[in-house]
Amino acid sequence: MSSSSRDSFSSPPPPLDWKFSQVFGETAPGEDLQDADVVSSVGFENSGDYLAVGDRGGRVVIFQAKHGKHTPNSFLNRNELERLDSTFATHPEYQYKTEFQSHEPEFDCLKSMEIEEKINRLKWCSTSNGSLFILSTNDKTIKLWKVKEKKVKKVSEMEHHSVVCSENDLLSEGSFMSELDKPPTTNGYNLDWAEKIAKDTLSSQEVQTKITHTEEATRANCRKVYAHAHDFNINSISNNSDGETFISSDDLRINLWNLEISGQCFNIIDMKPLNMEDLTEVITVAEFHPIHCNLLAYSSSRGFTRLVDMRQSAICDHSARILKDAEYHGSKSFFTELIASISDMKFTNDGQHILIRDYMNLKLWDMRMDSSPVAVFKIHEHLRPKLSDLYNDDSIFDKFECCISGDGLHFATGSYSNNLRIFSHGVGNEEGITIEASKNPNRRSILHPASRPRRSSLSNMTRGFYRQGHENYRSGSNEFSCNLSSKLLHLAWHPTTNFIACASGNSLLMYYA
Question: Residue 386's pLDDT is what?
Fold first, then answer.
C-alpha cells in the first residue's frame, strides 16, 4: 500500500454492530411474488432525507425520513421525546411518501423488439433550491421527474341539493324555460331572477366553506424525456458534479447529456468495432467523479476500469489510467474472464478511492496507484468450485451492486441466500460481517436454485464462444451451500450515517449501526 493510502486510512474504523430497522413490501406467507413487484434499483437522495426504489413494473416509490413533526407520538412526555430525538440522530426511520409510474412497456417496430418497463437505474439530481429531481431509466429511455408537494382540496361531504355555481344555476333554469314562459326583463336581465341568483351564490360559498378542507399531496411530473440515443440496453446513468450534465451508458457507447436539453446528446465513448465479430468486451457501468466534472470512469466485461479526462478530446478513446488487477495477468482458466466482469463501481466522496465489484470479489483501488488494489474482500469464495454449474444456469451473470459509507471507511455488497456482506478497511478482518436480509434470519435456505431462461444481452456475445462444447458440462454435484434463487443485488448506503437499504425480491430492508 502506498504512503498516501496509509494516510487516507491512518486510523482503522471500529467494527460496526448492525441491527435491523425496517422492512417494506414484505410478502405474506403463501403469497406469490409477482415479477412486476421485484425491486430493481435503490438510491438515496444526497441529504439522505429521501429514498427512491424502482421495480420491474416501471414504478418508482419514494420514502421520506421521519422528522419531529412527522412522528406519530406527538403526545409523549419530555423524556420520551428526548429519547426519540437521540434515537433519530443515529437511526433514521422512513415512511412512504409517494409513488408514480415512470415507464410503460413499449414495442420497437423497427427492431421488432419489446422494451421492458423495468427500472434499471435511479439517480437523484443535486439542486440549489431544494427541489427534488430524479432520473429514471429503463433499457432505452431516460426520464427526468420533479417531485413536489401540492395543496389539494378534499371534499368531506356534499349536500344533495346544494347550489354549486351561480352560472350553472343560470344555465339550468334558463334551459327549461320556453320563450312564452320567460318573464319580461329590463336591460336583458330579470330583476327577480338576479336577486335569486345572488342569494344562491352566498349559500354556495357557505356550503363550500363547510364541506372542503386542504391536504398536502405529493405529485411527480415528468419534465424531460431523453430517448432514441442508445441502440443497446442502458446499464447505468451518472450525474456530474457540475449539476448540469449526466452520462448514460449502454454495452458499447457512453453519451453525455445536458439536463435542460433532451433533443440531443454527445457520444464521448464508442467501443463498437467495425466488424461485430471482433467484439471482445462491452461496457458494464460508468460513473462520474464526485468532485472533478471532467473525470469519469467506466468498467468492462474483461475486468478493466478506465479513467478518462473529457478535456483531452471530444471522443474519449484514450484512457488516462487503466485499473486492472495483476491477478488476471497470469494463467487463465475457463471462467476467468466471466468472473472478472465488473458489475458495479462507486467512488468515495473524496474521489481518492474507487470501489469495484466483480462476481467473486469486492476491490478497493487508490486512484493514484493502478498497479493493484489496496484491499480485496472475498464475497462467496466457496462457490469457486461450482463455477460450471453457475454458468449453466446463468447465475454467473448476476450483477451485484456495491456501496460505500459517507466517510469512505466501510463497504457493502450482496450475495446469495439474501446475504448482506459488510466490510471495513483496516480492521484486520477480511471476512467482514454477513447478515441475512430478512426479518427471520435463522430460516433454512433452499439448496437447489430455480432455473431461468438465458438473458438476451449484448454482453453475452463476448462470452458466447464459451458455451460451445460445455453446454452440458457439470462438476458432478448440484448441491450448493446457498440459495441461488434468493440474491441481494441492489443496495444503497445512507450519505451521512451508517444506514443501509437493501432489496430482496419485492422487500426493502433497512439496517443501521
Answer: 92
